[in-house]
Structure formats: structure tokens, C-alpha cells
Please model this.
Amino acid sequence: MLASAPSPEPMAGEVHLGAVVSAVRPLIQSTLVLKARHPELELHVSAAKSAELVERVVAGALDAAIAVREAAPANPDLAWTDLYAEPMVLLTGRAVEDAPVRTLLQRHPFIRFDQTQHTGKLVERTLKRLRVRPQEFLELNAIESIIDLVRSGLGVALLPLLRDGRWQQDARLRVVELPRAEVRQVALVQKRGAPNAAVVAAVVREFQVQMQG
Model:
């Protein structure tokens, strides 16, 4: 659990943090704000896929990470704090015709996210819920690479609506909401009783401020 209120005491020391790519920008902004308030605090940020981030937290290489929380048996040594949820949506190019979701998935090349990853499994569950077999075209393991192809009109995709993605404001994208959509839960993971818990809590509070901005 995170501390309920920030400590008035100055913070110092070295803390290593990780994040999935979609959360890196607000995490870096958060660390810069805290560094300005606490000059003796050294904060390091790295990006990786969720499974690797969790492994690095378990191994002690990271003090905490912002990762995708999977519906799997919990490691009793880890504490998770939910931050936000990202619903699955259909993404198309702006020029694609307006049609029902199932029709769009059947009519246009489908760019799938890596099925070995948790996000890819959410895609597959969404397809099964929609009872549709898409026109399989390509499989990638990077959300931004998929988005670039969709922007170019080369296909459609099912992806989590990134909290920091700003896709609705993209003139070349169309975001189609799904009924009763699956959600991708993004959360903070750290070891229970970690010595840097107060610093991590301060980072998360600032992270939440950045995400609201």
C-alpha cells in the first residue's frame, strides 16, 4: 500500500524505477518534479515489457515498476497498487468507412498485438467476445508500431486505449469504443516492506498528478 500523505522530510538516496513504454513520459516528468524538490534524491527510470519489469522487481534490480497487472496467481512477496484501467478499443484510419465493429474487422486487414503478451491475450478475448474472425494480416509487439500502420491506412487493430495516448485528438485515427470492453489494468508493483517505499509513494502521487494534467 502507498503512504496516505507525503512526508515533509527531505528525501535522499538512489531509487531505480521501471515502466511500460506507455507510462514512461509521465513517470519521467514525475521524477523530474521530485528531483527539483529533493536535490539529494537520485531517480533512475528504465522501460521494458511488463513481465521483465516484474522479474526485475523480484530480483531487486528495480525498487518499483509501473506494469500491466495480469490476472495470474499473486506473488506473496509483491504488493500491487492499481493506478488506472485502459479499455480495449478498435482503431482505424480516419478514412475508413463508418460500419459496425464486426464488419470493420472482417473487411480490413487486421494488425494483431503479440499473442504471447498479456495485451495480446486481451485482444484474443475481445475477438471471441465479438464472435468475429478477422482478416489476419500482421502481428507486432509494439503498440506504437501498430498505430503507425493504422494511421497509414494499412489495417485496423484492437488495442487498449492508452491513458497518455491522445489518440482521440489524432487527425489520422478513429477510435471506436466497444460494448462491455475488456480492460488492461496498469498498476505499481514493488516488494512488500521495501526500504524505499516512502520515495516510491511520493513518485506515484506525482505520477497521478501528471496523468490528470
